[in-house]
Write a structure and sequence with these properties.
Number of strands: 22
Number of domains: 3
Radius of gyration: 28 Å
Shape: globular
Bound molecules: iron/sulfur cluster
Distance between the termini: 43 Å
């Protein structure tokens, strides 16, 4: 059996065409023609059912992933003279305005959900997403929309990915938006948490500027609660959105955890990303296991170690005192001794496997099943070692008598995030220091106040982006005096056949009661035999005909190899994005779960010639084939051979 790149068997080898002929011969039951034309007749005929693919259901930002993959592979064409690249950019940024950033750093839960995993391997969704974003940057695509000014003003506290996404969506709805940002640059965690070799700053700034250019006002270096009061915001704005993130780290909750040289992962990365921290001194231990801890140790390996430094240049002084290292000193740096510890086994660390592999290759030592129990300090209260205890494989049961000390100069705790609520009214925050939200991301019992992102519960960047889209809708309803909408079970951006028909000037006509065809399937005022279940149903792989798809190896993105020999001072981006050919090839692996992708199987296999192709000048995506119900005998072959699960035997009974 063929192996995929990870050494696993290709699952698709088990998927074959259903053969009526074989069934008849092998089982000695009935001849295949009788089976089709007599035994398989029913009063049910095919209907066309659009469902949400699991990639979209798994993407917290609610991206219409299948839609932009369809465009990149060349199946869904733009109308007019729009290029396919710009069409893909528009489709992608409907939900998520950061394709270049997310395509690089998102851990891609969409790929875990992708049905293609049942054939051989996931579609490389975030690699295509990066291609769309990078092409948009090269071509200078802008957000273009016309929105009538509503005269309403919204204040957004925090200019990270959630705040900026909400700002864009609110601008599309015609509201004035002002973002209050406490730092001197927008971007939140994307700017101050993620290292520049993972997201080049020109890429990030480009995606931020494109949002601001839609007419978003910004007030930089302005901390709400300190530089401007909540009362002022309440007086000057019609609605207020908290998108303040959770950018304070948590110190180690153990004796000695408050030592001067114990810092949080968030503070460490902020000092690096602000260009202030340029080296470390002595051994660094990072406690964590998640993506932030991997970023800390990877940065530490790149920064390198300088011995015999002045007191003012100790890393913790630079981090806490808001000072900066002298760039001249960097010529003296040597490889740093960096250890990452985690409570789980190394195999079960929460960080992405690719990131763990990179860190290992770059010379980071990673040890699992360890829990810090005490920071050992010297007479000046400085940490000189971290006392550890070993844990059983469950990652929580201490092994008695296994304590030992690891000497170190800097301890970085990457064990969680907290919220900086300085100067803000306590009544907005719950007992854990976060802000509660209802399903529409309103703050309960605080009319006019909304919230999204990490301040609700720290999660992925793409989660904050998804919540921002929902909260913008909620704010829009609030400003219009409407009731808040019940949100759909599947709350994502998905294919809308009516939009597609409108785009191609094929929208149904006005209802004409007197017309002869009014009650027939040829009446043009309605879309016939089509059901949109996208808002409620995610299509599982079991509804697809996987035998249609050949095993096709995934086109993994290339990486520049950084290893122990060249990591010092290496701040180059590692990922090499797809070129156009690679992007098209990878998008072509998408199975278009839940929506027709024009394979013609149903037309070819229908024994009655009942299924036919819609005339070219009337066809669009989702209306490519139709059925002549006067010929259909209900044998369900079309539904059986439909690779995407778009055809269901629903009509008739
Ligand atoms: S944002 Fe993340 S989860 Fe969503 S499509 Fe991109 S990589 Fe996948
Ligand atoms: S095959 Fe395509 S539509 Fe289906 S889950 Fe994967 S990316 Fe989504």
């Amino acid at each position: 059996m063929q192996k995929n790149p990870y050494g696993q068997n290709y699952k698709g080898d088990n998927h074959t065409f259903r053969m009526f002929k074989d069934e008849g011969d092998d089982q000695g039951s009935v001849p295949w023609n009788q089976k089709i034309f007599q035994n398989d007749e029913s009063h049910k005929c095919p209907t066309y059912v659009s469902q949400t693919p699991p990639c979209q259901g798994s993407c917290p930002s609610g991206h219409n992933i299948r839609g932009w993959l369809d465009i990149v592979r060349g199946m869904e064409k733009p109308s007019g003279d729009l290029s396919w690249q710009e069409y893909a950019f528009r489709r992608s940024t409907d939900a998520n305005p950061f394709p270049s950033v997310m395509g690089r750093v998102c851990p891609a839960p969409c790929e875990d959900g992708c049905n293609r995993n049942e054939v051989e391997d996931t579609v490389g969704i975030n690699a295509v997403e990066q291609f769309i974003g990078d092409t948009a940057k090269e071509e200078g695509y802008k957000f273009e929309f016309e929105a009538k000014d509503t005269g309403k003003k919204v204040a957004i506290i925090g200019g990270g990915c959630g705040g900026l996404t909400a700002a864009l969506q609110l601008r599309k709805q015609g509201h004035s938006v002002t973002v209050f940002e406490k730092y001197d640059q927008l971007g939140g965690m994307m700017m101050y948490g993620i290292p520049d070799y993972r997201v080049p700053r020109d890429v990030l700034k480009h995606e931020i500027d494109r949002i601001i250019e839609t007419g978003v006002e910004t007030k930089m270096n302005t901390k709400v609660g300190v530089d401007v009061s909540m009362e002022e915001l309440e007086k000057d704005y019609d609605a207020v959105l908290f998108a303040i993130g959770a950018m304070s780290g948590r110190s180690l909750p153990i004796p000695g955890g408050e030592a001067a040289n114990c810092v949080s992962g968030v503070a460490f990365l902020e000092a690096y990303n602000q260009g202030r921290l340029k080296h470390i001194t002595g051994k660094v231990i990072c406690i964590g296991g998640g993506d932030t801890s991997i970023d800390v140790v990877s940065v530490a390996r790149r920064l390198g170690n300088i011995e015999n430094i002045a007191e003012k240049d100790r890393p913790e002084r630079v981090i806490f005192d808001d000072t900066a290292h002298d760039v001249v000193d960097t010529s003296k740096r040597l490889g740093a001794d960096v250890l990452l510890t985690t409570r789980s086994t190394v195999e079960n660390m929460p960080a992405a496997q690719e990131e763990i592999d990179d860190a290992n290759r770059e010379g980071v030592e990673i040890q699992g099943q360890l829990q810090p129990v005490e920071v050992v300090t010297d007479g000046n209260g400085r940490a000189v070692a971290l006392r550890m205890i070993r844990l059983e494989e469950d990652g929580s049961t201490p092994i008695e008598g296994s304590e030992f000390d690891i000497e170190c100069e800097l301890i970085v705790s990457a064990i969680g995030q907290g919220v900086d609520a300085e100067g803000m009214d306590d009544s907005f925050f719950n007992e854990r220091g976060f802000i509660d939200a209802d399903k529409n991301f309103q703050i309960p019992n605080k009319p006019g106040f909304f919230v999204c992102g990490d301040v609700v519960r720290p999660h992925l960047l793409t989660t904050a982006i998804g919540q921002a889209g929902i909260v913008a809708d909620s704010i829009d309803d609030y400003l219009a005096g409407n009731n808040q909408k019940a949100r759909n079970k599947v709350d994502v951006h998905y294919f809308d056949l009516m939009d597609k028909l409108n785009e191609w000037d094929l929208a149904p006509t006005e209802y004409d009661k007197g017309a002869l065809a009014a009650a027939t399937d040829s009446a043009e005022y309605a879309v016939h035999n089509y059901e949109d279940r996208s808002f409620a149903s995610i299509i599982p792989h079991t509804e697809l005909f996987l035998g249609h798809f050949d095993n096709e190896e995934r086109n993994a993105r290339n990486h520049k190899t950084v290893d122990v020999d060249n990591v010092l001072g290496n701040f180059e981006e590692r990922l090499i994005g797809y070129n156009e050919e690679e992007a098209k090839a990878e998008a072509g692996r998408c199975m278009s779960c839940g929506l027709c992708f024009e394979c013609d199987n149903c037309v070819m296999y229908c024994p009655q010639d009942a299924v036919f192709k819609v005339k070219k000048d009337q066809a669009t995506l989702g209306r490519y084939v139709d059925t002549d119900y006067s010929k259909c005998i209900g044998c369900h072959i079309c539904a059986d051979v439909c690779p995407t699960g778009y055809i269901q035997m629903g009509l008739g009974e």
